[in-house]
Amino acid sequence: MEVRIRGRERELPPGVGLSGYRILREALANVVRHAGAARARVEVEYRDDELWLEVTDDGPGDGARPRPAPPAGTGSTGGTGLAGMRERVAPYGGWCVAGPTPAGGFRVSAGLPLAGADSSSAAGADSGSGSAAMEHRP
Description:
By secondary structure, the protein is α+β, with helices and mostly antiparallel strands. It has helices spanning 14-35, 81-89, 119-125; strands at residues 2-7, 40-46, 50-57, 95-100, 106-113.
């Protein structure tokens, strides 16, 4: 896997950081579960007004296998998959697009605006456990 981080790394508003982390986590989980990919690339760009994220793989998509259904009575598995990624950007006025690439493979791109984002917005955008940090480890 290749990881690229561009722009001036800085502390993000907590809700944006948590949403970004979870979008990347879900996109990478989808690569492992469904893509049949040999390679994946993660790009994070700290722009002046937006946190931009992209996960691209080179898989044919034929590695798909059904995920088991949640145990009865445990409720919805909401907040996962492509729909969940879109739900994570919505409270911030962000965007998320996903689909096949012209060369084969799949791409998930998302943008989370930084202007006006604060921790009070995070309560409705994300719940559950997990790290809110966007970490980069070489």
